[in-house]
Amino acid sequence: MAEQQETGSSEETPAADAYPRKILEYMEGFLISKTLFSACELGVFDVLLASEHPLSAEEISQAVGASLDGTQRLLAACTGLQLLNTHQENGHVLYSNTEQASVYLTRSSPVSLYESIQYSSRTIYLGWHYLTDAVREGRNQYEKAFGVSSNELFEALYRSDEEMLKFMQLMNSIWNICGKDVITAFDLSPFNIICDVGGCSGALAKHCTSAYPGCTVTIFDLPKVAHTSREHFVTGADQRISFHEGDFFKDTLPEADLYILARILHDWKDERCIELLSSVYKACKPGGAVLLVEALLHEDGSGPVTVQLFSLNMLVQTEGRERTAAQYAALLAAAGFTGVQHRLTGKIYDAVLGHKETRGRHIRLLVGQD
User: Fold this and answer.
1) Tell me: the pLDDT tens digits for 292-308?
2) Where would you tag: which of 32, 185, 219, 248 has the fewest CB atoms within 10 A of its CB?
3) Predicted TM-score (pTM) above 0.70
4) Is the dihedral of CA 306, 312, 318, 319 positive or negative?
5) 92 is catalytic
């Protein structure tokens, strides 16, 4: 009997392994993403926001120009994902937005993620079809996904005016919800002349001028990006924001007290990062600083999972990777910056600050070495 019990015990499957719930959730993850993407693209949340009362599936299907059957299934899935609320009225099911859906998934909201979602759906989602190839080859997949050369990273990213605007709208929507946190992670008030290197849509520049009334910000970016930013994002009302056109790997940066590199270094290999940071160091006034805005990995690489996934996305889309705070500190040190600190914001992006010594301090260091 004892032998039978022992044998039976060894053949039993542990309860924790009897149903692979987490693995099945991961397998279905892309279904969740695409459900959100499609509901946004069809304008479901916009229709419900514009309505003064909950709507039926029939009313929503007519408003978005979709089949009733397909709309019913999409609405049911969005309800299950807690993006929509349901209401019973005379035996009929009506739908309304949840608070987060109204705030983040509608086009008219000032903190809308709509454009970010569209970029994820139409660009990143397609690129990730080739993730396996990216891992095997160790390089981005623009040629396979979009049929364009990937030799010049930003020629691929900005492969058309439409794609460039989509990317800039993505950046704008991200900084709408994270920008203030990274700009105020450190007290930047001592720095009056700021250069936002690769400043794109100017969203971070606006956060700077709002948080620090004494500063002016120069956005340094490619001519076509600067033109699009002037046309769509930075208006005449933003009087303390100006533009300097150029390529940050080829052209001299304007002199400033503080340089901001937001989501820039993660696009590049270490060698290119040090090259860019060395140019920043050379242009930076003595006593100035550089602020890196990046998603930071834990020092042991164990997380956060969002940043680990971002690093895979860098493999698919760029030549770079996400890094730890210590790795960014090493890059800054290689370019000459000292006193490096980092601050976690609790959101997607964090801040790393490095300093350029004053001339007097630098001279004293040299004398001490003698």
Assistant:
1) 999 999 999 999 999 99
2) 32
3) yes
4) positive
5) no
